[in-house]
Amino acid sequence: MDPLTSTFNRAEVRKLGLRFAPALIETIETVTHLAAFTLITLATGWTRFGQNSRVIRPRTLHEIYRSGVQLLPIVGFLGIALGVVFVGQTLALMQQVGASGFSGTLIVTVFIRELAPLTAGLVVLARVGTATVIELGTARALGEVEALEALGVDPIHYLVLPRVVGFTTSVLCLSLYLILLTLTSGYAFAFTRGLKISPTEFFGSIALALSWLDFPVLLAKTTSFGAVIGLIICYHGLARPLALDEVGQATTRTVGHCVIACLLLDALFIALYLFL
Amino acid sequence: MSTLPIITLDGVRILHPHNPKTSLLNDVSWQVEAGSFWVVAGLQGSGKSALLETIAGIRPQASGSVQLFGETIPVRSDDALALTEIRRRMGLLFKGNGRLFPSLSVLENLALPRCYHRNETLSEAASDLAPLIDYLELDGLLEQIPSHLGSSWSRRVALGRALAQQPELILLDNPLSGLDTTQLRWWRNFLRDASRGHPALGGHPLTLVITTDELTPLLPLGHQFALTHAGRWTVLGDRASVHTARSQEGVREILGEIH
Fold first, then answer.
1. Residue A170 burial (CB count, 10 A)
2. So what's the ipTM on this one?
């Protein structure tokens, strides 16, 4: 090899390495801290399960209301839109090419397994998650977490667990709600466009395309999306002291980390499908 | 009066929160006995708040040991449950507005420690706290949220929250700063009641540690005095010793003797 080229390459590699090394170290640090935060939260949930219920239960219900019930209209709108755009058009197109029998498989593979949990998770992240990071980050910056500690109130128990449980429940319920609305509105749209397929045929083809594995995997996927979003949000809001002007940056970081984590989890579930 | 130390600090060094390479306070060795009333005086930024937060186990010390009620406060809060039990026996009033929880009403702020630790409903806690609420003159403010209160009333609510569990020890961080004369009179009466014992405050004399950057209003009330100045910790002793030490660096300033 030409010694000049070899030296150039080595220098380039070193320069690239220097550029990416801090980012890599930061990523490893974040993942490690997040894992530790998750373990602490799980341990707190285990040891304090059922304790202080007069305070924790209303807070958990409030979080379910905030991240679930209050999002029903927007998720409903999304469900109807997705039904028209995706299910309605899929049905029409499949009938045009004479492949109506594959509609169910396509809808189950693309929508029920992939799009619905991801969409519900991202809606919860966008509508409630970002507000929650700001809320927790501000509380941390203003010393409210220390005030809780001084009162002997465990911040993980009081601030994190209700939110993680709330987000987990909400993403699960909103995913099911989204699936139901999308399928119904999609079929209704296709029906009004003169599609010759009965409701029994349509829902029957979806039922046939679903395997027994879809139910536990959908449950695991939606709950893990909710839990991961809740944990990342609480981690960025609470895990390290923030100055007020850092709360905005923490929010941006949270959105990025949540999207990456959900996509990685999704890939994990796809791999699970392929292996089972 | 029992002589059992409630607080024991041994060679404690506290670092600056925003510059961890510099020390805020060095070599603090101190014992606070049950029922005593300590006034810790020092100029702003001399480490008084950090000292109280270290005693409460919120801010870890760089070196040395802190004992509260005979239990060592861990530097890393590994045993969170043990720390919770210790914290139930003490109250901490933060400086300024007292760090109330802005999304909770005044009553919810006051009742939170009782609802959490005793698993009471809000109405049960409100009924138990009625004598304290009456003593603190907060009856008309219970439904308000903290952002609608003035700073002196916020501070009084925060005091109520710190007292809600009927603690044996109360740490007060500069509670008299920026008060008008009416509020100041109320606080002086409260400090007198707390150190002597009052039915609304649990009936027994509380152990009090109060910080201040202006010693004069607290001179007639405190039993023992200490000084934080330029990173140093000095126990001045009783009231007479403060007068004796007025030529000492730092003492003149906190007595308000500028010239």
1. 29
2. 0.90
